[in-house]
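[Automated response] Your request has been received and processed.

Submitted sequence:
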Amino acid sequence: MDVNETLPPKTCSIDRLVTKEAEVSKVLAGQKTACRRNGRYADIGEIMELEGKSFVVTNVYQQSLGELTVEHAKMEGHETVEEYRDSILSMHPGMPWLPQMKVWVHEFKQAE
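Generated structure:
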């Protein structure tokens, strides 16, 4: 069975996964290899194009914010969970940071 068939339908398209200029720069520099969203934006194996470079989605899964580790923050291009949290909250004013809140994790790498 295709792993994507076990996931719920996408709620957005992959071209909306990484859009902020600072985040795009981190992906292009190899500093960001994951993106957390409140919905599912990509299938495993799907290709994201950023400034002429291709990135393949390697994993998609749900995670609660309380499960975030320093390693997860580094995959997002931040040094600490607190730095990542502050970055997200600055982009989404008024959003609560709740440990039980579930997000969709999209992991990716530069395509060969």
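Summary generated for your ticket: The chain has a mean pLDDT of 95. DSSP finds three helices and four strands in the chain.
If you did not submit this request, please reply to this message.
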